[in-house]
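Predict the 3D structure for this chain.
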Amino acid sequence: MHFFRIFISINIILILFTGTIICQDSLTIGTDTTSTLINADSTVNTVQVKKTVFKKKKRLVFAKVKSEGKSFLIASPKGWVIDDKSGKEQGLDVVLYPEGWNLGYAPAIMYTKIINKDNALQKSFADIISEQVTQLKQYGATIVKDSIAYTYDNKQSVIINFIDNTTKTNNLISYINEYNYIVSFILTSKDKDQFLKSKPKFLELVNSYKIN
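Done. Predicted structure below.
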């Protein structure tokens, strides 16, 4: 039941580093032409950039998800199942894993978390990112790369690919900025081959996201 050990480590990161988005050199978020650039030293600049865009899917069968007081729609990637029961004891309202497996033994797991913003502090998405870059690095995560995907309702999602050197897991975290919260999708696996195999499924999940 290795998932539960993995979950505890990543969940600690999400709690300690709310809204964390990190990169080795830089990270881009914003419109198609002008974006906020988060540098490795946590400074912020506005620049012209090119972004990686993943084509969103159409004609999906959506499932309504209720997580931590928020609700949205997602579609299960082909060959994966949505489970809204097994993760409750770990504080997870929704988990996904390949068909034929269960939460405790699946070779790869996806789940969602809601990160609430403190609007009283009036921090932007970029502010939250900038504050967390240094902190996550202190916990020894190796950042592989970052990219941008688009959700079904055409919101940008910042995706971070990193290795947790404590749990020896490969991870993707996607962040979608909403008005007073951030929706986060996480893919985690100890098996690198399974992780690579699951990455397209993770992108399918992110591409399917929309507000009801």
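The CA atoms of residues 33 and 49 lie 6 Å apart.
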